[in-house]
Design brief:
The protein is of the alpha/beta class. The protein folds into 2 domains: about 300 residues, Aminopeptidase (3-Layer(aba) Sandwich), CATH 3.40.630.10; about 110 residues, Alpha-Beta Plaits, CATH 3.30.70.360. The protein has 12 helices and 12 strands. The strands form 2 sheets. Strands 1-2-4-3-5-12-6-11 form an 8-stranded mixed sheet, sandwiched between helices. A 4-stranded antiparallel sheet has the order 8-9-7-10. The radius of gyration is 23 Å and the shape is globular. The mean pLDDT is about 95.
Amino acid sequence: MNAYTPLISRERLTAWRRLFHRHAETGMAEFWTTARLAEELTALGLSPVVGERVSAAEARMGVPDGEILDAARRRAKREGASRPWLERMNGVTGLVADLRPDLPLHTVLRFDIDAVDVQESLRESHLPYREGFASLHEGICHACGHDGHIAMGLGLAHELAARQTELKHNVRLLFQPGEEGCRGARAMAAAGWLEGARHVLAAHIGMWADEDRSLVCGAQGFLATTKFDVEFAGRAAHAGAEPQKGANSLLAAASAALNMHALPRHGEGDSRVTVGRLEAGSGRNTIPASASMACETRGATSAVNDYMFEHCRAILEHTAAMYEQRCRIRLMGGSESASSDESMIRVVREAALSMPWFRPELVRDTAPGFGSDDACVHMAAVQRQGGDAAYLMLGSRLAAGHHSPDFDFNEDVLPPAVELLAKIVLSLDAC
């Protein structure tokens, strides 16, 4: 491993992390975040791409409705987001930045930028609240570490920009919206940002690396997933006088939920189905004329997940016919299954063991994927074209579990995370 001296300070990385933590934004509506990233990267001499070029329109999923997006844009303006960058976004969040656009693409790194729809803890024991950088936005907070990922991405951009003339290939940074719910990756991949890449990296703070100075070099076996919403539309009627004239959407939804959960598990790998939300009806004495469901399937492979989803679709459609319903199924997100490649795991391990931060006994080659992550879309896209991929888990003690109101990580992980990623990129670039 070549000699490497970090340039970015812990203080600056921590300041970025806390700034983005304070301005937490929900998936596909990260307007302030994208604008600030664009300003920071432009100041480095890079030319970030924003707007409709970032994500293919036909592949976008789970985009909030117009009112929510308009409110998020207005809030970003109030909080000082650059108006020219907001205009250039044209309603589409996320950005792409190339370090050497004049050279062939070689390595792509994904950094997720969205927050979670969770109300942040306002207890003195919670460091973001105690130190004054808790989320400004009710019901939205960085309870999964993506604020740290943003800081890592900016730190890496600074490290590589200072070494631009040394790069033999282009390195591309994807600041991806909508990871929660697996909504953002597919549209970025469909826009062609992975085409020609030989390597792709993603990293997450914590997960199965929940000790300081620990590392998982390459997660294996992420589950493929499909997220979908269902709407049943029936007929209302007086529940006492004329129930026969109604078409009960609540019963349709309840029947469908029970039958989806009764699907047999798949013999070729883990399979999941979940109806996470069911809402129906309007009153005690009225036959329910509408129902909505928020659902997901998962599978050890994309084929297993497809099996689960297609059987759920069949159950929903046949249940609608039984209960005289109109049924609408909307895809809201999804990801493929993927695993890290052995070739990349070796590169990650070599880089980590060259650093005093990581304790060798806490550096593991592999660990199971933490449910699903749409970085797998990027990983699979590069692997299909003959490249390799790795998903790192960066060790940090956690104040509480991911997506908990009290979630927080040890900011000491940020400088070694940036150094590790930079060393991996430079090692790959030399090949």
